[in-house]
Design a protein that fits this description.
Largest sheet: 2 strands, parallel
Structural class: mainly alpha
CATH class: Alpha Beta
Helix content: 40-55%
Order of helices and strands: HEHEEHHEEHEHHHH
Strand order of the largest sheet: 1-4
CATH topology: Rossmann fold
CATH superfamily: NAD(P)-binding Rossmann-like Domain
CATH architecture: 3-Layer(aba) Sandwich
Number of strands: 6
Strand content: 5-15%
Oligomer: single chain
Length: about 180
């Protein structure tokens, strides 16, 4: 999927008279990290197939949208440029787990095999198309870049984690039906 995105970006760059801007955020805070919030709420683990010391500065989907909107509102200024929005701070997955603990779910990161992560992600409704590219993105999760395009500070991981912790499916009371559902 990443290769296809890269090829499409090059195709648009080669078209005469077409202005384009690339927004390539890498891992979002919302996915894959906080997509596993139901596991954090119900099982006390954050099962991700990344090493504990690997670092990322995951942006929120709202920050990514603000970057895209800024580029769309002034296309001439951003034509031919590429942006990689990130959050404000590089974090390890263990640090993210501690932040999730501060917002209401005491969890620890457990480095899981990719097949187990896929099974859990499917259980919480992740689409196969999105999962298909994650294998390669897990290898490229230490960007460290910061996008200052919007004039607004990037959301902190804790802010995004609080938003996910408040979702109905991330509350412990909803565990009865969720945990008894069969997983293929």
């Amino acid at each position: 999927m990443s290769r296809q995105h890269w090829l499409i970006d090059r195709m648009f760059a080669a078209l005469p008279g077409i202005a384009h801007t690339v927004v390539a955020p890498g891992f979002f805070a919302d996915s894959p990290y906080l997509e596993m919030m139901p596991f954090a709420a119900h099982l006390g683990v954050l099962p991700l197939p990344v090493a504990g010391e690997s670092r990322n500065a995951p942006p929120s989907v709202d920050d990514i949208a603000r970057v895209a909107v800024a580029a769309l509102l002034d296309p001439a200024r951003h034509a031919g440029k590429s942006y990689r929005p990130t959050g404000p701070k590089l974090l390890t997955v263990s640090e993210m787990a501690r932040i999730i603990g501060r917002v209401g779910h005491n969890v620890r990161h457990v480095k899981s095999p990719l097949w187990l992560f896929y099974k859990g992600a499917r259980a919480v409704g992740a689409q196969p198309f999105l999962l298909s590219g994650l294998r390669y993105w897990f290898e490229d999760n230490d960007p460290g870049a910061v996008c200052k395009l919007t004039g607004k500070d990037a959301e902190h991981f804790e802010t995004i984690a609080r938003r996910h912790a408040a979702l109905p499916q991330s509350r412990q009371a909803s565990a009865r039906g969720w945990l008894s559902s069969p997983v293929s």
